[in-house]
């Protein structure tokens, strides 16, 4: 029996009549079928997340991964929406350099800010719960000063939007009309905070698809929808931190991603979407495990090299320990990080450059910028 996943509401757009889709509340009816194929996909995804959690626990400081992984996710989730910034652009800007693509870099940094804000709120005893208001506050930070910031940043839309096409009448998909949003979002909130027998990771996938279908903002829905995945994975205890950059898998399989979401709306195929989502989680977690292992090996080897050098200094060891969270540095940043004089900062940078750990990137004699190039090489795949 074909599942009905929502209803169409006829609305007016100028002189045109438009069919806007209003999704049925979660969970799916009839209930989602966790057949053998889906259970296998779930088992593989949970195993991959378990390996990632172990990889994070095995290092002295999980921030070694977190800094780079969050920015990789921020970059790729923005690239899906058309941003052209590179990882080097973003990290150089954070190191105090002028952005080469300021609008694009701002969008990526805004995502980091939005995620950081939302995680802090969820961690605070009296912080905002995982609900519409928190997503609106995150959206406000996502859109701050960026393209589309005039489109009701931080507010649920008050007009019709659409996906694809030049107007609702020729769009690929038309989300619910604005008057249907309060009920749709309220129902989603209740399901997030209610009890359900479905496994948490399956629920994460259902929430993401439902949010994308509701499309409550005029702009930035895709990025907030992917941010919601990171928040739920942590909030429901699947990982201790947002160490998985799932947007990589969505970007690699972009056409399948859109097709699976559309099949939920058209055919009620929640099973197909769920298997696709779980496969993406497995792929992304395995990627992150491989990256984490490589980053750990790189940082450990480089620290040992510096510590064992006959001319090493305390400042050099402190700087190499700071590089995973500051993989692009300038003399001014090193002065700030280590609280040392300018001559000491320059000598320390030159020492790490001679050791093959830092690499100068500008070719200039003044205002030089140095990259922890081996660390960046691990994170760069899929970001160009």
Describe this structure in words.
The protein is mainly alpha-helical and 384 residues long. The chain folds into two domains: 283 residues, Fido-like domain (Fic-like fold); 71 residues, Orthogonal Bundle (Arc Repressor Mutant, subunit A), CATH 1.10.10. Helix 3 packs across helix 4 and helix 11 runs antiparallel to helix 15. The chain contains 15 helices and five strands. The strands form two sheets. A three-stranded antiparallel sheet has the order 3-5-4. It has a two-stranded antiparallel ribbon with strand order 1-2. The model has no long low-confidence stretch (mean pLDDT 92).
Secondary structure layout:
Elements: E1 6-13, E2 16-23, H1 36-57, H2 63-79, H3 87-94, H4 102-123, H5 132-143, H6 181-193, H7 200-214, H8 221-235, H9 247-252, H10 254-267, H11 270-308, H12 314-322, E3 328-329, H13 331-338, H14 342-354, E4 359-360, E5 370-371, H15 373-379
Antiparallel strand pairs: 1-2, 3-5, 4-5
Helix pairs in contact: 1-11, 2-4, 3-4, 4-5, 4-8, 6-7, 7-8, 7-11, 10-11, 11-12, 11-15, 12-14, 13-14
